[in-house]
Structure to design on (425 residues):
């Protein structure tokens, strides 16, 4: 027997059983985006490697060690996208969307690829749901996008124990003075930091703040913070963002050492974490990237965006509400050959009414038929025997309480809908 071929390490199949949660999360995301007038964009999974090297930054973890990069047959270097902001901005430039003027609000859903060590909540192919606002540097733009994200995660999907961590990472005018202060402070402590941080102290000191090594944390906590170095414009922008969040009653924590793992961020950066997750507790992250379009050869176009880790969101959502999106199933039990026809008619009608209905054709004894209904976790069974067929009233059985009620044939759809509504509240 030949050996079976398995899926690639860090990738996984999403089977019908769990796909319900994914669809529910995506439905809610689309509804939230629609409410805020964001339009969908789909960009290719495959991009030129230089796109990410130039935008995300050559010395970031993503570009230096996590990308799936390969040489194409013609010698060109291609990469499976590790994130989508760079692609969206590339498309914005390539199709000259900026010529239309105004603000572009875009969203995307899809797989991303990073060659990380697989563990719960961390995969090599994972999924992001993200949004970008291009063409506005207003702090209210940041606040509005954060409000939308809050509406989606907290109000719609009831993400438990979530925290919004915000910071400003300044701009190319004020950041250099902070970076040199940081470099200076690192001189004294870098021998006690991990090997990666010793290297970062030289190449990209900001990245030290993003270090995940436990032993480094107390030392990192003593380093200077960027908030003491912001220029007037960046400080005003940050104050306005905080004020806007206060006005909209969105809670947040200023986290002065929060930097993101991508070089293109300026000013506002943020992360959303959830206590419903384990070690990989970051559900979403994002911020402002005013210089990115220019960096990619486009016109000046300030931007703000975020990406939600859908795998982690689904994990948290499933834990909070494992019935969420579980669509109630109606099982139709028929008892004698003569009841099969009325059963099939009823099934067809209920299905036209958008209910989820199962009808098995294999003849079964009553008990066995109801056992089948339980096995497929039907919420209600409708029982059709010779009696029911003659009286025009079918028995509807609540499968969890065992209660049974005769219901007029014509009223069954309404009856089920009302009961389901009650149960799901
Ligand atoms: P982390 O610190 O957990 O590595 P990150 O800062 O690298 O996250 P971003 O690049 O900001 O993540 O991506 C946004 C979101 O995408 C993260 O908050 C996370 O939910 C999700 N994400 C990132 N990498 C992975 C991965 N390998 N597997 C699953 N989800 C991921
Ligand atoms: Mg990462």
């Amino acid at each position: 027997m030949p050996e079976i071929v398995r899926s690639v390490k860090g990738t996984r199949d999403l089977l019908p059983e769990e796909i319900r949660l994914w669809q529910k999360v995506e439905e809610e995301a689309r509804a939230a985006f629609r409410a805020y007038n964001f339009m969908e964009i789909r960009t290719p999974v495959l991009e030129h490697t230089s796109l990410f090297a130039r935008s995300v930054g050559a010395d970031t973890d993503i570009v230096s060690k996590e990308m799936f990069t390969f040489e194409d047959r013609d010698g060109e270097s291609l990469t499976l996208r590790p994130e989508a902001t760079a692609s969206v901005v590339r498309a914005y430039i390539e199709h000259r969307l900026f010529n239309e003027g105004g603000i572009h609000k875009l969203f995307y859903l899809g797989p991303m690829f990073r060659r990380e060590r697989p563990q719960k909540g961390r995969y090599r192919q994972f999924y992001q749901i993200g949004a970008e606002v291009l063409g506005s540097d207003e702090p209210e733009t940041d606040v509005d996008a954060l409000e939308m994200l809050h509406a989606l995660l907290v109000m719609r999907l009831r993400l438990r124990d979530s925290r919004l961590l915000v910071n400003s990472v300044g701009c190319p005018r004020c950041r250099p003075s902070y970076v040199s202060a940081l470099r200076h402070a690192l001189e004294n402590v870098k021998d006690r930091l991990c090997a990666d941080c010793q290297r970062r102290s030289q190449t990209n000191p900001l990245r030290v703040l993003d270090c995940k090594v436990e032993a480094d944390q107390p030392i990192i906590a003593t380093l200077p913070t960027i908030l003491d170095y912001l220029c007037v414009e960046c400080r005003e922008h940050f104050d306005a963002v905080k004020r806007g969040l206060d006005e909209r009653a969105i809670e947040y924590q200023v986290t002065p050492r929060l930097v993101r793992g991508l070089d293109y961020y300026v000013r506002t950066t943020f992360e959303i974490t959830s206590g419903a997750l384990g070690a990989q507790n970051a559900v979403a992250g994002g911020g402002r990237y005013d210089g990115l379009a220019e960096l990619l050869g486009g016109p000046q176009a300030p931007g703000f965006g975020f990406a939600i880790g859908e795998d982690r969101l689904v994990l948290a959502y499933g834990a909070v509400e494992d019935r969420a999106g579980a669509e109630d199933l109606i099982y139709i039990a028929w008892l004698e050959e003569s009841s099969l026809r009325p059963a099939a008619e009823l099934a067809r009608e209920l299905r036209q009414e958008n209910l989820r209905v199962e009808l098995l054709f294999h003849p079964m004894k009553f008990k066995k038929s109801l056992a089948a209904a339980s096995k497929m976790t039907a919420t209600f069974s409708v029982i059709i025997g010779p009696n029911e067929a003659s009286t025009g009233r079918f028995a509807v059985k609540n499968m969890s309480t065992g209660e049974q009620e005769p219901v007029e044939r014509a009223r069954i759809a309404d009856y089920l809908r009302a009961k389901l509504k009650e149960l799901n509240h």
